[in-house]
Amino acid sequence: MRYLMTHKPSETTPDEKLYAEMAEFVEELTAAGILLATGGLEAGGVRVTSSGDEITVTDGPFAEAKEAVAGFALVEVRSKEEAIELTRRFRRIVGDGESVIQQVFGP
Amino acid sequence: MTDVHRTIDAIWKLQSARIIAGITRMVHDVGLAEELAQDALVSALEQWPQSGVPDNPGAWLTAVAKRRAVDRIRRARRLGDKHGELARGLERQGPGQGSDQDPEQDPEQDDLLRLMFVSCHPVLPTEARVALTLKLLGGLTTGEIARAFLVGEARIARRVAAAKRTLAEERVPFELPRGPGLAARLSSVLEVVYLIFNEGYSATSGDDLVRPGLCLEALRLGRLLARLMPEEAEVHGLVALMEIQASRSAARTGPSGEPVLLHEQNRGRWDRLLIRRGFTAMLRAREIGGTPGPYVLQAAIAVCHARARTAEDTDWARIATLYEALARLLPTPVVQLNRAVALGMAHGPEAGLALADSLAGDPALRDYHLLPSVRGDLLARLGRLDEARLEFERAASLTGNAAERAHLRRRAAEIAAPAVPGPTLGQAVREFLERGELDAGTVRSYGQTLRRLRLALGDRTPLSSLTAGHVARVFAAAWDGTAAATWNRHRSAVRSFGAWASMGHLAAGIERRAGTRTRAGCIDPAQLEALWNRPDLPLRERTLWRLLHESAAGVTAVLSLNVEDLDLDDRRARAGGSWVSWRSGTARLLPDLVAGRTRGPLFLSHRRPGQARTPAPADLCPETGRRRLSYERAEYLFKQATRHLDPAGGGYTLRRLRPRA
């Protein structure tokens, strides 16, 4: 099963220790064949909305930036519980904040 | 399962391999290490529901298991040298780090790699390697493994237990193979991983075409191995092959579970992410260079398919060339059959059919449904529709997979059946056997012969189209290596059938064989010498084979020996009314095999008999409760061990250990 884990921007300012722990975590999951893809996302971005025939393109940043996704990880695991367990470890490294886990279907 | 239990299960699956690997380095016994890790798991199951899951559950489990290991080692030390291995383990262990570690390597990763090599050790039968690897490295329970392979849980549990015992008995060291031994050991690991993948990908039995769980386990093992051994091209080749094959999982079954052939698949449903991972792995393999091995070549073929935007774009000429190279490394009939498909696509159906036809007599493909399926395809493209339909029907009757069978039947049905002149082979055989003039034994015996004819030639082949040439080819493929008596029995079945059907010529192409029993010659002395010196053979097997060779006694007599019958000083034992005597080779091994036992069967099975099958008391060891080794099992083990020596590929029978008189 594939799960997409996304997380919102964190209050904690990343320091050397966090970077090192994070690198180790990513390395471990990659080595174990679990982590398929991961990345950070720019704050803001471009918003495209459609309404009827009209398409509107707006450049960020947006007021509700805190709600936006700051990074993601795509993992391949055996169960939802495994995905939760990985997210738990991730949260312990990055500190206070929120992650969302969603199963990925397809292609 | 409650939420906490599910969480614990998930943690276990993610962490157990590392825990077991670390403990094995301390105690030098995989079975014991797993037991200690399981103890830690039990503690977690007892404590966590109340106390909550600890902050770092993996570290918690490791700490508990390590504490138990240290307790075990201290106790062993107090007990003196009996468990010397364990005591040494603690000395070598030091505080948290082994002294024999290469400082360049991450010790934890190294332990995982060691664990992989041990689980896939050639001393174990293949099935045991697969089960043990899934258990120790995948963290699967015996129940989960059993369900994945559609066998009983007890069977997997026995398989795992026997494997652990063998590893302990054979004192398989917990170390990384180096030097010339590495290639063979690595190929054993790759074989196990690919076997797991294939069992998941092309389920050989059952109703599902794919069991994704096993594919995922294999992929994870492969990716892990690629991280642990980044310098091995074949590892990356295997990973590339699996990633690309797995990328097609969704596309290869249709809405009702039927298989969709590669060239008919909707390529939009291929998983681009896995394809990209496959390409990356392939690039790594290419960067390492060297002569491409079988996995790199197979991956290169998979890459060709993955690159083609449409089926028509496929570079079949390149694929045919790659198969040719692969056939040089692995000259198996299955590879040749794939080459026939590629040739058929690259250079037209005649070219493919010529190669496929040349495989028709190969005994290894006798019951392989893909041969008639491929031939059917090529014949249909040549417009030889009647033959094609028969081939598809034959393929359908040979496959064990329900979805595949339905697909093949449909392909046969798409070609309209012509008016059949007279009865078909299937109808005639049924009529012949059921007419009530034959006794039950004859019906069974004739039935066996005729069933083979039906499978080989097709049930719906018109009887009148059968020729002596057809029959002779079936005989050559099916029974050429059998004893004359067997051959003649099948021959008389066909003669009787032919006479009944007024087709007396049917057996004309099969000569009666001389009835004198020709015993197969004994094994070449050089091969025997190599066999005696093989380090990976269990003691029981080595002793049995040497004893058979040195004593020239019958297999049954030797297996019937009891410990109390042995006269170790005079090197002889009473068996029934006669003596079995041996020489120094056996004499060296016997004391270890007896190992303090005073009575009961000399050669013991590794298993205790099941409740339902209690053997005679004389066949049971009063000390271990194990049963006497059976002729069948002993014969099987010898065949397995000598398969690579036997030019016919089947392995030698025990009788051939007897020296020529």
UniProtKB/TrEMBL annotation, chain A:
Report the sequence similarity comment from the record: Belongs to the YciI family.
Q: Please state every residue range assigned to the domain named YCII-related.
A: 1-90
Q: Which domain of life is it from?
A: Bacteria
Q: What is this protein called?
A: YCII-related domain-containing protein
Automatic annotation (TrEMBL), chain B:
Q: Which UniProt keywords apply?
A: DNA integration, DNA-binding, Sigma factor, Transcription, Transcription regulation
Domain (Tyr recombinase): give its ranges.
Answer: 518-661
Taxonomy, superkingdom: Bacteria
- Any Pfam family from its record, for instance, is DUF6596
The UniProt record lists the keyword DNA-binding: yes
The residues covered by the Core-binding (CB) domain are 423-502
PROSITE patterns xref list: CB, SIGMA70_ECF, TYR_RECOMBINASE
Q: Which InterPro entries match?
A: CB, DNA_brk_join_enz, DUF6596, Integrase_catalytic, Integrase_recombinase_N, Integrase_SAM-like_N, RNA_pol_sigma70_ECF_CS, RNA_pol_sigma70_r2
Give the start-end ranges of region Disordered.
84-108
Sequence intervals crossing the membrane: none
Protein family membership: Belongs to the sigma-70 factor family. ECF subfamily.
Protein name per UniProt:
RNA polymerase sigma factor
What is the species listed in this Swiss-Prot or TrEMBL entry? Planomonospora alba
